[in-house]
TrEMBL record, chain A:
Keywords: ATP-binding, Iron, Iron-sulfur, Metal-binding, Nitrogen fixation, Nucleotide-binding, Oxidoreductase. The keyword Oxidoreductase applies. InterPro entries: ChlB/BchB/BchZ, Nase/OxRdtase_comp1, Nase_comp1_CS, Nase_Mo-Fe_CF_bsu. Belongs to the NifD/NifK/NifE/NifN family. PANTHER family: LIGHT-INDEPENDENT PROTOCHLOROPHYLLIDE REDUCTASE SUBUNIT B (PTHR33712). It comes from Methanoregula boonei (strain DSM 21154 / JCM 14090 / 6A8). It catalyses: N2 + 8 reduced [2Fe-2S]-[ferredoxin] + 16 ATP + 16 H2O = H2 + 8 oxidized [2Fe-2S]-[ferredoxin] + 2 NH4(+) + 16 ADP + 16 phosphate + 6 H(+). This is Nitrogenase molybdenum-iron protein beta chain.
Automatic annotation (TrEMBL), chain B:
Residues 48-444 form the Nitrogenase/oxidoreductase component domain. NCBIfam families: nifE (TIGR01283). Keywords: Nitrogen fixation, Oxidoreductase. InterPro entries: Nase/OxRdtase_comp1 (IPR000510), Nase_comp1_CS (IPR000318), NifE (IPR005973), NifE-like (IPR049939). This is Nitrogenase iron-molybdenum cofactor biosynthesis protein NifE. Pathway: Cofactor biosynthesis; Fe-Mo cofactor biosynthesis. It comes from Methanoregula boonei (strain DSM 21154 / JCM 14090 / 6A8). The lineage of its organism: Archaea, Methanobacteriati, Methanobacteriota, Stenosarchaea group, Methanomicrobia.
């Protein structure tokens, strides 16, 4: 791998080398899968749809179904209207979903297909729904696409029935794993508050094997629930990049108060999330949650000397990286390099502020970066640990740095989509992974005379 | 446990228009309908032109592969194949022009030129492949002109690959785009001549899990040197020596027949179809290659090698055959040549074939497939998951051989699975590969997990059929 690193220090000027992001449609597809009985539909070439399904399948190790408009040269010249109409007709006839969630691709965006109009002209059976979102691949990243689809769910479906609100909370969980969504539901339910969470891929992409193969598994937020989100008192938007847009629209459209929060990854962010629910609804913190938090504190104390003062490179999606940066600061580590591929000035501002408050200097923070740059930084000055996606494994190997896999995508390990990183239980799991990464390394590097039983 | 299917049971094809794309061996009188575009709105397993071009060229190890388009196309194809390299690992690095909105509006040619300049300056590669994608094709970026200017500027081969995704939903068109790029690369410069040697080229061999090295070892023992493979573990310099070979072997016909025909026309090099999947195919291929040289000693060496290797793997194959006899298999892979090879291998393990299908098979290939299959086997072109599901359950399949998207489908139905796609990481070719394949089929077919899945949960019902 070493010979792939160019000689000397090189400034990166244009384009991307080893991108740290991917394109909008896959995010929209993932969000759509969190609606019950939904078939995502990719309005573009077949390749996009195949790639997105494959990529999601490799991460979640579960079936991802989505249809495509199967563009050909003809569609590209004359517009994709007839392809989309035919698709909608065929999908309802053959696959019979409750709802089709259409997202665009760079091709249909460039052609300029007017999706809402095409949907209006399509044959939609009684009681069935078609929603859409625009996801040009040349804007933003997969997180933008996820955010856009969440926003479209609100635009198409959320309704306020009147002035009075129900005593329930909306949670927009962000681009997290089904295991994380399941954990968020468990926490809110434990607090005794009725929850509307959308999208929700738990029970879809982590569904148990059942004797009945179902094209549309039991999980996912129902259309009725998304409609009802307009009647909730408050929306907790977890992660600004993935969730704020939908929460803002809910506030504007249905008068539901939106509260922006970090993804509840790490101690402080989980505290903030739980306190937001507690403060708004006057909920009591149940004993099980209090115990879990106490266990996190206890574990931090038990393990602090393994990672205290170690330098870390954190990379991946912005909401994940922001929350993780906060957590490693809490743990006493130094986030030396913090990078996301997703564009957005507020990323740099948020992370820089956290570093300043912690009195950490000499770190590098970058939005819209790529892994080439991260590697260049690491070559300049090494770190003790990397936290991020599978794409970091080349750097980890070349520079011989342990890598804790975190975020999306993880393509070379299994089981992770079912194991939460959010909440206090997520904290324990992350502490275990981070701590063990250092201990594994110590064992590996120890001379025979230093190889210890007890660490 | 009743069979359950998400589809109406009555229909043979789930979509009326697809009726002609599904056949039953021995019962159908018409030719199978294939190789046209997928239906709009179907959950097809097919990909696009760019995808086809990318998988063919990706194993060129020391070239820069620069993808001109928005970032996604580069991300999804980053280090996508299990192709191994004996030298440079540069092909695993992902380069994208990362087109933005303003590039789409004002054209992306300037940015492309700047990206080419940057990668050449940073990496000094012997060649750069520049891939067109949907958007760069749609807005009319002239990548041919940009590449030409850049080639002159840097005195390096900057090769355009005309692989805009929307041209077709059929990967084969992408194979052609890649083939044209390769031919452009190997065309001798003005006044350049090529000396013929006794070496051979190996077309359509991508060195998945080191498969090219395996074939190379066999051929070397017989006394034959591989000049270069297209494109497994190839370098730009080695590819340029391709015209010097005396024979072209073609393994993956879908991607390389056209190249072989071209090389024959241009350089007078004959070609021969070979197949190294399964012990019989491997033996047959080695014999035919040795026969080409018309050298008795060489043929004797080939026979000795075949006899030795066959004897060496027999006990292992026998062991697996004893376990697998009578089990039912389904095959759904990209190309027909691969499907036919797998049919032979599974038969060699004593298994029955319940279903065979491909994404890119041609009518005559389906006919030859139909001839070797027993009556009642389903043959299907461009299947969608619903169809696959239906037949897997109906035919009581035990194991499926397919690609990444079929894996989860099989698992959900409680059926074993072996990956035979181009992103495989372990070689399945040659004699050693035959044992590995048999082992993989055995491991998944005879795993105790299916037993657990089919027995009832405490106080409940079974998880799978």
């Amino acid at each position: 791998m070493l010979e792939c690193v160019p000689e000397g220090k090189t400034e990166h000027t244009t384009g991307k080398i080893n991108p740290a992001k991917t394109c909008q449609p896959i995010g929209a597809m993932y969000a759509s899968l969190g609606i019950h009985g939904c078939l995502p539909h990719s309005h573009g070439s077949q390749g996009c749809c195949a790639y997105h399904r494959m990529h999601l399948t490799r991460h979640f190790r579960d079936q991802v179904l989505a249809a495509s408009s199967s563009f050909t040269e003809g569609a590209s010249v004359f517009g994709g209207a007839s392809n989309l109409k035919t698709s909608i007709k065929n999908i309802f006839k053959i696959y019979n979903p409750d709802i089709i969630a259409v997202h665009t691709t760079c091709l249909s965006e460039t052609i300029g297909d007017d999706i809402p109009n095409i949907i209006k002209q399509s044959e939609i059976p009684e009681g069935k729904i078609v929603i859409h979102t625009n996801t040009p691949s040349y804007v933003g990243s997969h997180i933008t696409g996820f955010s856009n689809m969440c926003k479209s769910m609100v635009a198409y479906l959320a309704e306020a029935q009147g002035e009075t609100k129900k005593e329930q909370v909306n949670v927009i969980p962000g681009f997290v794993n089904p295991g994380d969504m399941r954990e968020i539901r468990r926490i809110v339910t434990a607090l005794g508050v009725k929850l509307v969470m959308f999208p929700d891929t738990s029970g879809v992409l982590d569904a148990p094997l059942t004797s009945k193969y179902q094209m549309y598994p039991e999980g996912g937020t129902t259309i009725a629930e998304i409609r009802d989100s307009g009647n909730s008192e408050v929306t907790l938007a977890l992660g600004a990049f993935a969730s704020n847009a939908a929460a803002d629209l809910l506030q504007e459209k249905c008068g539901v108060t939106g509260i922006p929060l970090k993804l509840p990854i790490g101690l402080k962010a989980t505290d903030d999330f739980i306190m937001a629910v507690k403060d708004w609804f006057g909920a009591d913190i149940p004993k099980e949650i209090a115990i879990e938090r106490g266990q996190v504190i206890d574990t931090l104390i038990d393990t602090h000397f393994h990672y205290q003062g170690k330098t870390v490179a954190i990379f991946g999606d912005p909401d994940h990286v922001i929350a993780m940066t906060e957590f490693v600061i809490t743990m006493g580590m130094v986030p030396k390099y913090v990078l996301t591929g997703t564009p957005g000035k507020e990323f740099e501002a948020t992370v820089t502020k956290m570093l300043d408050e912690a009195g950490i200097t000499g770190s590098r923070v970058k939005a819209e970066g790529d892994l080439f740059e991260l590697h260049e930084w690491i070559r300049e000055e090494k770190v003790d640990l990397m936290i991020g996606t599978t794409y970091g494994k080349y750097i980890a190997r070349t520079e011989d740095i342990p890598l804790v896999r975190f975020g999306f995508p993880i393509l070379d390990r299994a089981v992770h989509p079912l194991m939460p990183v959010v909440g206090y239980r997520g904290c324990l799991r992350l502490i275990e992974q981070i701590s063990n990464a250092f201990l594994e390394r110590r064992d590996r590097d120890a001379l025979d005379e230093d190889f210890e039983l007890v660490l | 446990m009743e069979e359950s299917c998400t589809l109406p049971r009555a229909a043979t094809a789930c979509i009326a228009e697809r009726q002609d794309s599904i056949q039953t061996a021995g019962k159908s009188r018409t030719r199978i309908h294939c190789a046209d575009d997928s239906l709009a709105g179907s959950v097809s397993q097919r990909a696009c032109v760019f995808c086809g071009a990318r998988v063919v060229l990706n194993p060129v190890t020391d070239a820069v592969h620069l993808i001109h388009g928005p970032v996604g196309c580069a991300t999804y194809t980053m280090d996508i194949r299990g192709s191994l390299s004996s030298g440079s690992e540069l092909f695993r690095t992902s380069f994208s022009t990362d087109m933005k909105e303003k590039d789409v509006i004002f054209g992306g040619e300037k940015k492309l030129a700047a990206c080419i300049d940057e990668v050449v300056e940073k990496y000094h590669p012997p060649a750069v492949f520049v891939y067109a994608t949907c958007v760069s094709g749609m807005i009319g970026d002239d990548i041919v002109a940009v590449c030409k200017a850049a080639s002159a500027r840097h005195n390096t081969d900057i090769i355009p690959v005309e692989s805009s995704g929307f041209i077709s939903g059929n990967k084969v068109v992408g194979y052609r785009a890649a083939a044209e790029a390769l031919l452009r690369l190997i065309r001798p410069k003005e006044g350049g001549t090529i000396e013929k040697t006794q070496k051979i080229n190996f077309l359509g061999e991508y060195n998945l899990g080191g498969e090219k090295w395996l074939a190379e070892r066999y051929l070397r023992e017989i006394g034959i040197e591989i000049n270069v493979a297209f494109t497994g573990d190839s370098t730009v310099a080695a590819l340029k020596r391709a015209p010097s070979a005396c024979l072209n072997l073609v393994q993956c016909t879908g991607s390389m027949h056209w190249v072989a025909q071209n090389l024959e026309r241009t350089f007078g090099t004959p070609y021969m179809d070979v197949n190294f999947f399964g012990p019989e195919n491997t033996a047959e291929s080695l014999r035919r290659i040795a026969a080409f040289y018309d050298d008795t000693a060489m043929m004797e060496r080939a026979e000795a090698l075949i006899a030795r290797e066959m004897a060496r793997i027999r006990p292992a194959i026998e062991k697996y055959r004893a376990r697998l006899r009578g089990k039912r298999a389904a095959i759904y892979v990209g190309g027909a040549y691969k499907a036919i090879a797998i049919i032979r291998q599974l038969r060699g393990l004593g298994m029955e074939i319940a279903l065979t299908g491909t994404q890119t098979g041609k009518a005559d290939e389906y006919e030859s497939m139909s001839r070797i299959l027993s009556e009642g086997t389903i043959i299907i072109d461009d299947a969608n998951p619903a169809e696959l599901e239906k037949f897997l359950l109906e035919k009581h399949v035990d194991v499926m051989i397919g690609g990444v998207k079929e894996r989860v489908l099989a698992y959900k139905l409680g059926i074993g699975f072996v990956d035979h796609n181009h992103d495989r990481k372990d070689g399945l070719a040659g004699f050693e590969g035959a044992v590995r394949f048999a082992r993989e089929v055995y491991v998944t077919t005879c795993s105790p997990v299916w037993e657990r899945a089919r027995s009832p949960a405490p106080g409940g019902e079974a998880h799978a059929r």
